[in-house]
Amino acid sequence: MKTALRKEPRAIEPRVWAGIMKLFAAYSRRYVRRNFRALRIWKSGLPPGDPSRPLVIFLNHASWWDPLVCLLLSREFFPDHHSFAPIDSAALERYRFFRHLGFFGIEPQTQRGARAFLRTSHALLASSRNALWLTPQGRFMDVRERPVQLRAGVGALAAREPGTIFLPLAIEYTFWTEPRPEILVAFGDPVLPGDEPGYGAAEWTDIFADALESVQNELAVRSCRREVNEWIMLNRGKSGVSGIYDSWRWLQARIHGEEFERQHCPEVS
Q1: For the domain 18-238, what is the CATH superfamily, name and number?
Q2: 149: how many CB neighbours lie within 10 A of its CB?
Q3: What's this model's pTM, rounded to 2 decimal places?
Q4: pLDDT tens digits, 198-214
């Protein structure tokens, strides 16, 4: 008696519901403003203009905030692309509305999950108007941890998608002079696998790890400098220290006939 082979289910291409995405993007922008001083991008770390190719943006996984930051960056720099991202299938079951925001479930650290990831990604990257956002470190990692190591999926994807642009993105969350932290981001140089057709999956994984580490190192140097004129502010949050402290400073300014500046250390550009 022959045993029938079980076929793996066909990968279901995720969808983006424009109305829900618009509402969630507006919510995310306000939520980030309430919790951070600013979202800034390094002036020399801007991405290429909205390209006419499919995109894979791969970033270090610094914080729970990463998906919201990526959403804001996608709306700012890639408005003509539809953005998608993999997420643990168990998490997607808990937060099912993510299905309407371009997320698709995968089983991490399994061969079945890896195959499903590659099938779904291949279907998405067939369109030049799609972008895939990946955190190939696979878990939250401190931004100072070196060397940067990535899981093999991003390299396997590059070996299969020579016409796709791969773009490294570094993110940091750090305190400068205000009570609320800064979000600092920078993109690295784009990589087109089609320009190096001889590389395999393992080689691409190493290349991308080096590229991401390079832009993370540059971002760390710029973060330490705290030179605001090196940055473009994409989203401005609240300034000030506290109600009592700011009230006292306001009173002092009124007494001396000076203009009240809510920021603890006013920015000079």
Answers
A1: Glycerol-3-phosphate (1)-acyltransferase (3.40.1130.10)
A2: 15
A3: 0.85
A4: 899 999 999 999 999 99
